[in-house]
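Progress narrative, Year 2. Work on ERO1-like protein alpha from Xenopus tropicalis advanced from sequence curation to structure prediction during this period.
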Amino acid sequence: MVSGCCRLDMSSYVSVLVLCSLLLWGSNSQQEQSSAAQRCFCQVTGYLDDCTCDVETIDHFNNYGLFPKLQQLVASDYFRYYKANLKKPCPFWEDNSHCGVKDCAVKPCPTDEVPGLKPPGFKYTEEANRAHEEIDDCEKEKRLSAVDESLSVEAQEAMLKWNRHDDSADNFCELDDEESPDAEYVDLLKNPERYTGYKGADTWRIWNSIYEENCFKPKAVQRPLNPLTSTRGLCVEKRAFYRLISGLHASINIHLCANYLLKDTWMDKIWGHNTAEFQKRFDATLTQGEGPKRLKNLYFIYLIELRAISKVLPFFERSSFLLYTGNETKDTETKKLLLDVLLDARDFPLHFDENSLFSGDKKEAAKLKEDFRQHFRNISKIMDCVGCFKCRLWGKLQTQGLGTALKILFSERQIENLSESNQPSEFHLTRQEIVALFNAFARISTSVKELENFRTLLEKV
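Result:
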């Protein structure tokens, strides 16, 4: 009798154990299913380090306000054409790994298709520039610049001085020689940034070089492509620089995941969101916890560039500033839209406080600022080592855009001293810098918007 009871109790125990195991397995399965949609984003929330702003505020401000305006702005004639030399040799190592994939190629734009290079004024033509090279160097250097034919001689002389100043110590980028025969205008709308299928060895080498050789990196970092394992021990300036590079890297990866070549046949190509590729780059489990940190650094670079365009408002709101393409009606509309974007940026409630940078000992701060600038110039040079020409184009544009943003942040006094007239000023932006600045910020803005799309898609995984 007792033995039978024992057998019954043991049988019941086993049944309970099996039932509990099934319930536990079901619970874990449900947890795994829910975490699959959250592993990339569960940590991407709340306040950002070194900032008083939170992720949610940026999402709402960007996705439902600034993003659509920026897309309209960069589609305008003034902002869609960018001049770049994509044939410069790599200055750091011998490189013969140019991409042979068709989607790596860039389609240059004939000069007669670029608004502003031809009439209404003959002086905007190439023939006029060659004939009067010794008289009007400004026109030679800036055939697509924001110059209307009604500008005074004084204004043209001022621009000439500005051009000479552009290569001074204020620049954070290695600028292309726009007069090089290898420099060509590119229609950015016809050469979108997206995954090209290029998988050259230098794709790893580029970012490895940026992180390993040109960043203020913590000594604890052993793997350059997982750079943010620890930023303890870095001052706020070095930490900020490091997070800018990581944020730029994250943004570029998001663009590639959002415009991925999903189908490639002889009949057509289909581009779209690749959630598996996104998880590979940003899932906490698949990136040893680094993915969410990279995404938070995207928001950090967003704040930096947003702060820059808010501070440069006085430069653009002068009535003497023109967005010249030759179509007066469209030029007026484009400037109105530009000012609308700048005013929205100015009214953002939780800006990054750039005064926290370089605010210590003056001598040390000056050295740190110069190191900051030199490191970034080196990074801009590395973009000439990218084997995929389309990737090189967007890499050069986005590094120049970020460099222009840094130039603005560190030119507060010069911007405050701007006058309404076209008298020579310590602060000036070239047309190339303007185009790069707003296209680069539009790319960062697009990345933030795409995170919302990937959140929705991953909930279905």
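The longest strand covers residues 81-85. The two ends are 55 Å apart (CA to CA).
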